[in-house]
Protein 1
Amino acid sequence: MRICSRNCDLARGRRCDHVNSRGIVCCPEESCMLRLCLAVAVSVAAVSAAFSQSDPIAARRDAMRAVSSATRDGAAIAEGRAPFDAAKVRSIFETYSRSAKAMPQLFPEDSRSGGQTRAAARIWEDRPGFTAALAKFDKDAVQAAADSKEVASFRAAFDRVAANCTSCHEAYRTRR
């Protein structure tokens, strides 16, 4: 005899209206709990997204940390400290591309100072140049992902993409 959470007796040969065709309990109370959990999860995601938009300095710092982590992984592969893994290489370049696409929106006019930012004033003074540098970074990352078939081609592509980081940081980041 199977009993659903509403204590309906299923042994009588009739289908409980609280159990679906696969025998899974779907009582109204449980559906409400599931809906509540889903609503809470969506709310948390929305609040997180709103917080990121309300604190662009923290959001761009997080994006740069992701790029830094990907660069460490790439350097380990390029230097032979880690094995070449096509999926890992693709992930590295996807992180670069995703960050390059997000960065222009993470430098609004009101985020020039505060929050331990190292963004140079030149970002806002030369917005077209900054946006072009990020577009080049994205383009080079996408091309590098396509070109990296083995270690040798990865090294060349990785060096080409990493040069974008250096030139952008020299132009658009303040020194400590």
Note: The first helix runs from residue 28 to 54.
Protein 2
Amino acid sequence: RQQKELLSDCIALLQVACLIRVPSEVVKQRAQVSPSASTFRILSHTLYHEGIQGLYRGYKSTVLREIPFSLVQFPLWEALKDLWSWKQGHVVDSWQSAVCGAFAGGFAAAVTTPLDVAKTRIMLAKAGSATASGNVLAALGGIWRTQGLSGAREHPSACLQVLSRGWQPSAWEGSSSWGPTRRRASCCSDPAPASVL
């Protein structure tokens, strides 16, 4: 029962985090494909042509990506820390937790890359198009029909995503040892929810 409540709480937190993350992700994605346009211009253009819902295009696909990502990343991170602690006979240090977090996040990013590709396509699709409707399965089907399996794996930011998302869980543990009372990172500590663009 507690695990079900914890899972539902985590999903609710991801949904709330995406309320903030998605508009900034939409603007960021569009800025990456239009480097000559300013962030303010992209934001105002989106609001003028699509309204506030334009900033939330890709919300469902972002949540659908974040849930499996977290379900892979955090248990793997904890398992790797436990394994490393067991092998060396004491609790992992912050840098060791960072290495475990990088591997876990990188693996989770690799596993969920097709969902990330669909999310990006939805966010960047022309307003009014079928892809812009936000249907993740339709977006993945379109990628499959035009590019095959490689289209769902090739993502311009896949390498950066693996690197940046891999360090998320370990940042909390590392920062917890910077306070006035330094403590060793625990293999059983609860990480704060990660939020990264």
Note: Residues 130 and 138 are 8 Å apart (CA to CA).
